[in-house]
Specification:
By secondary structure, this protein is an all-alpha fold. It contains 18 helices and no strands. α2 crosses α8, α3 runs antiparallel to α7 and α5 runs antiparallel to α14. The chain is globular and about 65 Å long.
Length: 481
């Protein structure tokens, strides 16, 4: 464990880190309120509206998928934008539109308007959300450069504060939804804090290189064993984590517990787990050399979700209230997300460090997009495509059981067992398959069979693998030629 909190950071780097952290906290607190309120509202409205109730979860799956596709548009735009403009300019401009208004405080009806009005709001949020989420993966290198230790320290410390804000936003979302909506002042605060590192400028050159960014990122990822494993390790891991919070939590809350707002309690536990995971990476950034041990931990804890459907009927049928049960699930989510956050933070530093010198290695790619932005756009867009298909398919599957539950009028225990039934397949079988796929992916890089491999051991260059550590004892990556 380190004695100094930010070893080797200059005064300017610490200043920029402070402004960036303030901005990310404002953003996370606001986005938890905004998305939490909108997702709760759309789950309730699509289930209560007679025209949409029969296919409510499939429709929500389409809406979630379209939101993710809009995030893909935003993420793909990042690569050419950060190549052409300073990263903070793009970030400051992107954050300002993610605001929301006052939502109906009536939890019984959420108004009597058509739920399809949510589509344009949710899609607009998606575009800006995608830009911000992807730039979060890119901007640390702008602040501290390609030093692997600094990147791990910065990514983990920022993620800790990010989840402090997220946990607060999730736990207090019920109050924020009824009183102050989506917290627009915090989004404005985030934009101002990020703006401190750059002047505000115009944004252009958006759609012209839509596909070239993906092609460039795919070419880099598929060219090397030390990048191709990021598809199961990063992309598929992100799919399961996102479905845990945005799919499983609200769907289980509505079908089994009867109120989609309980998902915010579960996600509060998930956010706190992410804080703990980032804290562990922060404390052991010099002892664990690569993301591989963290990703393996992430894969194994996915199996814990079996517990939720396993204990749900026994507890809920014997007097445990839905609110109490949601807190139990929140505690379980904490352990699952702890593993994901540790893997996510270390993977982000791994990618940033690996692509530090890639600009000079791929002349064709730099004509349109930065390699780092292109790789992140490819991985993030791949995640969105996978999530779209998964969420819609599972939505159709859940509608079958949700309609059965609605048809059961006088037998609460039968309705409860019917509602729990599909989650054995989703929370149990599906997440265990995800564990196997992600775990298998961690054995793709060279030298990855070691318990705690070093950066040089998993390098594609045999000379690096044989030499052990590089000069100065630091692990250094070089792009494969």
């Amino acid at each position: 464990m380190r004695k100094e909190m930010f070893p080797g950071f200059t005064a300017e780097q610490k200043r920029n880190l402070m402004f960036y952290t303030i901005g990310i906290m404002c953003y996370k607190f606001g986005i938890e309120s905004a998305l939490g309120s909108v997702k709760t509202m759309m789950t309730e409205r699509f289930n209560s509206n007679p025209q949409t109730t029969a296919n409510a979860f499939a429709t929500i799956g389409i809406l979630e998928g379209l939101n993710q596709l809009c995030q893909s548009l935003g993420s793909i735009a990042v690569a050419p934008l950060i190549f052409r403009f300073k990263t903070p300019r793009v970030l400051a401009v992107a954050i300002t539109p993610i605001t929301g208004g006052q939502l109906s405080p009536d939890p019984e009806t959420y108004g009597n308007w058509t739920p399809y009005l949510i589509f344009p709001l949710f899609l607009a949020i998606g575009i800006c959300h995608g830009i911000v989420e992807l730039i979060r993966r890119v901007i640390p290198r702008d602040i501290v450069g390609g030093d692997s230790t600094k990147l791990k320290v910065m990514d983990s410390s920022v993620h800790m504060w990010y989840e402090v804000a997220g946990t607060s936003g999730a736990f207090f979302s019920a109050f924020m939804i009824t009183k102050v909506g989506a917290m627009p002042p915090l989004f404005i605060g985030a934009a101002y804090a990020w703006y401190q590192r750059s002047a505000f400028g115009a944004i252009s050159h958006y759609m012209r290189v839509y596909f070239s960014s993906i092609v460039t990122g795919a070419r880099i990822v598929f060219s090397s064993r030390r990048f191709i494993w990021l598809i199961p390790g990063y992309t598929i891991g992100l799919v399961f984590h996102r479905y845990l919070e945005s799919g499983f939590a609200p769907n289980f809350s509505k079908i089994v517990l009867g109120d989609a707002s309980f998902a915010q309690i579960m996600n509060g536990g998930s956010n706190f787990g992410e804080f703990l995971g980032a804290l562990i990476v922060f404390l052991f950034s010099t002892q664990i050399h690569t993301p591989i041990p963290w990703v393996r931990w992430d894969a194994l804890v996915l199996n814990l979700l079996w517990i939720v459907p396993g204990i749900a009927y026994k507890l809920l049928s014997s007097g445990t209230t839905p609110n109490e049960f949601s807190w139990i699930v929140a505690g379980l989510f904490m352990f699952i997300s702890m593993g994901w956050a540790a893997g996510d933070v270390s993977l982000a530093a791994y990618i940033q460090c690996s692509l530090e010198h890639s600009d000079e290695d791929d002349e064709e790619s730099v004509e349109e997009a930065s390699p780092l932005g292109a790789v992140m756009a490819f991985l993030y867009s791949s995640y969105i495509a996978m999530y779209f298909c998964l969420n819609f398919g599972l939505g159709r599957y859940l509608d079958v059981f949700a309609n059965r539950v609605k048809a059961i009028k006088n037998d609460k225990n039968l309705a409860l067992s019917t509602g729990i039934e599909p989650f054995y397949m989703i929370a149990g079988v599906m997440f265990s398959v995800g564990c196997v796929v992600i775990l298998a992916g961690t054995f793709i890089p060279r030298g990855s069979f070691a318990m705690n491999p070093t950066m040089n051991q998993i390098s594609d260059d045999p000379k690096d693998a044989e030499s052990g550590n590089s000069k100065g004892g630091e692990d250094v990556f070089h792009m494969s030629s």
